[in-house]
């Protein structure tokens, strides 16, 4: 990623942020003296080491304000605005392309790199990726999207292809996606845009549809989803764990340059009903804590995984809630430091424990 080309706040300026963006710009001296022409003293700016996704289905305005509030730590925000449904069609989600949001984030010095996910399964994606004409048409559709607004690049979060089909079909996805990333990232770089690729954690049992080495060469950033070790359609348990972070970071840092890696933390949890084969309910950190207090459940912290959890009853049903908070993030950060990974992420803005940002700043 070309750091010199990233939109940044000018050193020494104080930005007065509102929900609509930046209301005024004053130097520190002017802020104190009511002047706008006083020279700003030289001051070291904090490192921006975090990125975050902005959801479209939750309180978008609150998520946007969250980003502005923590602009000093954020280098990139990825609005979750688009879905590829075919070779050439990219569906816009509600609120996609909001120019006020884009402008406000830019004024706060944050890159805007929208996320595109895909609804095509492994068989469909393998066919697309290995067909040179269709692959080129899909790249062209993504380039048109990037050019449609003042975007700084694109983030690809292609997961359906990685979790469907046979092992043989996912291997075809792996080789085809590497070709696709080479071509897409080269085209983006030629236009001065960033190429970000989001991947599942690569372990002995997951993430095999992604060629980390090839993707790491092509992309500016490789974002690892450091969550859903236990997920909505599985058994109750921590969304992440210290041992799991060790496993996937050991592999990732052998195959991708450390300065390109990001590890995204969860700001949410799952509520499973014991003995019921049904999808668990999604809870943001705020919702999980409110539920715990309402039910009078004890806060428990699992030191082995580094995550909080609690149990409650609803009628005859027993519920198990596992989630993540700032304490858990602080427990996981030493593993990132051990492997030399500084860049972090958040799924998603507005979901998280407000102390999350202080935990990151404590690195």
UniProtKB/TrEMBL annotation:
Domain GH18, chain residue ranges per copy: 47-363
Signal peptide: 1-32
Molecular function terms, GO-annotated: chitin binding; hydrolase activity, hydrolyzing O-glycosyl compounds
Matches recorded under Gene3D superfamilies: 3.10.50.10, Glycosidases
Top-level division of the source organism's lineage: Bacteria
GO BP terms in the entry: carbohydrate metabolic process
PROSITE patterns assigned to the protein according to its UniProt record, in alphabetical order: GH18_1, GH18_2
Keywords: Glycosidase, Hydrolase, Signal
SUPFAM superfamilies in UniProt: (Trans)glycosidases (SSF51445)
InterPro entries, A to Z: Chitinase_II/V-like_cat (IPR011583), Chitinase_insertion_sf (IPR029070), GH (IPR017853), Glyco_hydro18_cat (IPR001223), Glyco_hydro_18_chit_AS (IPR001579)
Entry similarity comment: Belongs to the glycosyl hydrolase 18 family.
Protein known as: Sporulation-specific glycosylase YdhD
Species per Swiss-Prot/TrEMBL record: Streptomyces chrestomyceticus JCM 4735
Lineage: Bacteria, Bacillati, Actinomycetota, Actinomycetes, Kitasatosporales
Gene: ydhD
């Amino acid at each position: 990623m070309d750091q010199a080309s990233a939109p940044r706040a000018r050193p020494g300026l104080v930005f007065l942020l509102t929900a609509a963006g930046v209301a005024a710009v004053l130097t520190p001296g002017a802020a104190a003296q009511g002047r706008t022409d006083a020279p700003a003293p030289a001051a070291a700016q904090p490192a921006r080491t975090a990125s975050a996704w902005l959801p479209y289905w939750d309180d978008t305005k609150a998520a946007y304000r969250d980003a502005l509030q923590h602009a000093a730590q954020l280098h990139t925000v990825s609005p979750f605005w688009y879905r590829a449904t075919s070779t050439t069609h990219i569906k816009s989600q509600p609120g996609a392309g909001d120019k006020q949001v884009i402008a406000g984030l830019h004024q706060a010095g944050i890159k805007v790199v929208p996320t595109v996910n895909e609804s095509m399964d492994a068989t469909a994606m393998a066919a697309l990726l290995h067909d040179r004409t269709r692959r080129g048409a899909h790249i062209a559709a993504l380039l048109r999207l990037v050019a449609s607004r003042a975007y700084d690049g694109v983030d690809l979060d292609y997961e359906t292809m990685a979790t469907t089909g046979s092992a043989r079909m996912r291997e075809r996805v792996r080789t085809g996606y590497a070709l696709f990333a080479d071509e897409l990232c080269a085209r983006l770089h030629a236009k001065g845009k960033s190429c970000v690729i989001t991947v599942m954690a690569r372990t002995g049992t997951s993430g095999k549809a992604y060629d980390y080495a090839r993707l790491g060469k092509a992309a500016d950033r490789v974002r690892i989803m450091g969550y859903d070790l236990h997920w909505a359609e599985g058994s109750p348990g921590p969304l992440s764990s210290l041992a799991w972070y060790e496993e996937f970071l050991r592999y990732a840092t052998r195959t991708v340059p450390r300065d390109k890696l990001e590890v995204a933390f969860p700001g949410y949890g799952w509520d499973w009903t014991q003995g019921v084969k049904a999808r668990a309910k999604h809870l943001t950190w705020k919702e999980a804590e409110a539920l715990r207090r309402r039910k009078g459940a004890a806060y428990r912290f699992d030191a082995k995984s580094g995550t909080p959890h609690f149990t409650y009853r609803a009628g005859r049903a027993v519920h198990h809630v596992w989630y993540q908070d700032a304490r858990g993030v602080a427990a996981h950060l030493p593993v990132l430091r051990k492997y030399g990974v500084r860049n972090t992420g958040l799924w998603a803005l507005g979901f998280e424990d407000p102390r999350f940002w202080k935990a990151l700043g404590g690195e």
